[in-house]
């Protein structure tokens, strides 16, 4: 009798161990200098939903400093860092061979990256090296092998079950809150070596727009302008004071960006950034389907437009039909 019980317990323990191995996730953590990006914290939230243990991968000269910021996050079991200068700017051609090497030599069953510019470059290359089909911009984790993602500019939602040995996915940060849970356990930090890539791509330079406003990706309030503002002068005169009053991030439609009203880093939409703030204020934006795909998950949408037939009003919680050149200054003054 006791031998039967022992065998049963051993069998259940074996299943438990296999389950733990099945729910193991490698997560790429992006940094800005020594600080972890909000999108990476949201990616960790998605990883926690898959299950423990989680290994965080940080790259670049300041990766050790950034690694200490998430060492106490609940669910993070281990932190891998590489301080090589080759990884300083997360060139996909440099990072992909390293990630593929880690995944080939370990039991990880999931690999998550933020759906950022870097993540979107790294993920397909890792998929090609491993001969695995990656999933882009997941918005929900159903189980360790089943995920929800939008398609057709968000007009259709897919539930996808992945049968690959390693599940590769980019995580839409607006769909997951940044992780905040702390653990008393401090994860071990292990340094790994640079993996030769044979890469011929070189980092040349970058131009960063510095602003005191919140980052567009993670802002709680976004003020966004479109073609209705007519030109860059009106875009600056009307939206900047309004955004300052609301302590909001500034956004724009593709039409405004193409007309050189503002820098393309402010573009919201299918080919720009996807946001889901508590308040999205659309000024002079008609609401093309590509723009709606990037902001329709906002908690409250307020639209100001002179065209009462504009598509933006179909999804707006509050709509005002009128001359934005009169409405916006008055709104700013009242605020």
Report on this model:
- The protein is α/β, with parallel strands linked by helices and 335 residues long.
- The chain folds into two domains: 2-191, Rossmann fold (3-Layer(aba) Sandwich), CATH 3.40.50.620; 221-334, Rossmann fold.
- 31% of the residues lie in helices and 24% in strands.
- It contains nine helices and 17 strands.
- It has helices spanning 2-22, 38-50, 63-70, 92-104, 117-130, 232-246, 254-258, 289-292, 324-334, and strands spanning 25-29, 31-32, 35-36, 54-59, 76-82, 110-114, 135-138, 140-143, 146-151, 156-161, 167-171, 188-191, 221-225, 249-252, 279-283, 300-305, 318-321.
- The strands form four sheets. A seven-stranded parallel sheet has the order 7-11-6-1-4-5-12, with helices on both faces.
- Helix 4 packs across helix 5 and helix 6 runs parallel beside helix 9 (324-334).
- The radius of gyration is 23 Å and the shape is elongated.
- The chain starts with a helix and ends with a helix.
Would you summarize the structure shown here?
The protein has 335 residues and is of the alpha/beta class.
Compile the SSE list and pairings.
Layout: H1 2-22, E1 25-29, E2 31-32, E3 35-36, H2 38-50, E4 54-59, H3 63-70, E5 76-82, H4 92-104, E6 110-114, H5 117-130, E7 135-138, E8 140-143, E9 146-151, E10 156-161, E11 167-171, E12 188-191, E13 221-225, H6 232-246, E14 249-252, H7 254-258, E15 279-283, H8 289-292, E16 300-305, E17 318-321, H9 324-334
Parallel strand pairs: 1-4, 1-6, 4-5, 5-12, 6-11, 7-11, 13-14, 13-15, 15-16, 16-17
Antiparallel strand pairs: 2-3, 8-9, 9-10
Helix pairs in contact: 4-5, 6-9
């Amino acid at each position: 009798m006791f031998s039967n019980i022992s065998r049963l317990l051993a069998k259940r323990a074996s299943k438990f161990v296999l389950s733990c191995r099945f729910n193991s996730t490698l997560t790429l953590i992006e940094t800005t200098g020594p600080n972890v990006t909000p999108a990476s914290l949201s990616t960790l939230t998605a990883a926690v939903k898959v299950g423990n243990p989680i290994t965080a991968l940080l790259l670049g000269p300041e990766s050790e400093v950034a690694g200490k910021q998430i060492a106490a996050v609940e669910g993070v079991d281990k932190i891998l860092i590489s301080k090589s200068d080759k990884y300083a700017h997360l060139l996909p051609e440099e990072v992909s061979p390293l990630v593929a090497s880690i995944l080939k030599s370990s039991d990880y069953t999931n690999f998550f990256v933020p759906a950022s510019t870097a993540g979107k470059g790294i993920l397909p290359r890792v998929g090609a090296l491993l001969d695995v089909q990656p999933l882009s911009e997941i918005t929900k984790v159903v189980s360790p092998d089943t995920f929800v993602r939008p398609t057709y500019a968000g007009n259709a939602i897919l539930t996808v079950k992945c049968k690959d040995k390693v599940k590769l996915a980019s995580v839409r940060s607006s769909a997951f809150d940044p992780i905040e849970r702390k653990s008393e356990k401090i994860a071990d930090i292990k340094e790994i070596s640079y993996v030769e890539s044979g890469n011929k791509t070189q980092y040349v330079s970058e131009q960063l727009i510095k602003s005191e406003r919140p980052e567009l990706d993670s802002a709680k309030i976004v003020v966004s302008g479109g073609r209705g503002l007519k030109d860059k002068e009106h875009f600056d005169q009307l939206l900047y004071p309004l955004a300052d009053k609301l302590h909001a991030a500034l956004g724009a439609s593709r039409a405004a960006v193409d007309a050189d009203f503002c820098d393309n880093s402010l573009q919201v939409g299918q080919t720009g950034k996807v946001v889901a703030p508590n308040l999205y204020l659309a000024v002079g934006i008609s609401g093309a389907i590509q723009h709606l795909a990037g902001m329709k998950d906002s908690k409250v949408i307020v639209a100001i437009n002179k065209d009462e037939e504009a598509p933006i009003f179909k999804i707006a919680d509050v709509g005002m039909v009128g001359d934005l050149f009169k409405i916006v200054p008055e709104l700013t003054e009242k605020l």
